[in-house]
Please model this.
Amino acid sequence: MTTYADSGVHLGDARAITDRLAAIAARTRGASVLADVGAFGGMFSLGAWGQLKEPVLVASTDGVGTKVMVAAALGRYDTLGHDLVNHCLNDIAVQGARPLFFLDYLALHRADPDVVTALVGGVAEACRLAGCALLGGETAEMPDVYAPGGFDIAGFVVGIVDRAEIGRNGEPEVEDFLVGLPSSGLHTNGYSLARRALPPVTWDRYEPSLGTTVGEALLAPHRSYLDEIRSLTDAGARAFAHITGGGIPENLPRVLSPTVAAVIHRHSWEPPAIFRLIAEAGAVAGDEMERVFNVGIGLVAVVPSDRLDAVLAAVPEGQPIGRLVERQSDERLRFVGEHAGRGTG
Model:
C-alpha cells in the first residue's frame, strides 16, 4: 500500500512543525492579532490605528534569492529569516510605513523540523525586533521540485502610514545632498554573480581581509533601516532609496523627481572587503559591480542642504555621497571618481 510518505511528503513532521511554529509566532504577537497559527487566514485588527486620519496600507513581497544556496551548503539557516524580513521592511519603510504584520512562505525538498524551526525562528525574531506580528505562513514539502537539501523562502509584509505623512518633507530638489548608510555586506542581492566569483570551495576559507571565512561574510544578514529612516525623516530627509537588485543606478532614480539627476562620488566611501574580493576573484568590472551590488551603501537618503547637519546628527553613520543637479539629458545618475574597491574599468 502506497502512502504519502512514500512520495516524499511527511505529514507527521508537518504536525510537529506546526506545533513548534505556533510557539515561535506567539512571541511576535500583540492584541491586534485575532487568529492563531492553524487558522485558514490570519486576522489583524486595525483598531489600534484608528487615530490616523487617512490610513494607507503599504505592502511588499520578496525573497532572498540564491543566498539560500550558501546557507544550505554551510548548514546555517538562522540568519535567512532576518534577511527576508529586513528586506521587506525596508521596502515599505522608505515610503514612511510602519510594519503591521508579516507572512512567510517556505518550500523545501524535505521539511526537516530543525531546519524549518531555524528558518522561521529567524523570521519571528526579526519581526519581534521590528514590532511586527508574524501573522501566519506556509511550509510546503515538495521533493519533486527541489533537489535534496534545496529550499526557498519568501515573505510578505503589510504596513501602514497616514496619507498626510507621505512625502511630508517635499520632493527632491537641485542641490539636495545624497546621504548613504552603510550596508552589512551583499544583503540579499547579487548572489548568483558572487557564487560564480567565489565558488563553494572557497566558503570555508578564512580570509584575512574579511576577518572571517568567505562563507560567513556571504551570510552577513541584510540590515534593517527601520529606525534610521524614522530618525532621518524627523530630521528632514525628503526621500529614501533602498539599494537592492540593480544597485544605486537602478534604485536611486526611482525616488527622484523628473527634473533632477544624481551625481555620486565614488571616493566618498570605501566598500566592505567582500566586494573587492568578488571583483578581483571574478574579474568583475567596476560598472558591473555597481549595477549588481549595493557596493557598501544599503540606503540613500535625499536631504535638503539646510537639513544636512541635523540629519548627520540624527544618524551619525550617514555620510554624504553626492548631490542632485538639474537634469540635462536622459541620464538620471552619474558616478564620478575611480572604482576603488568595486572592480576595474
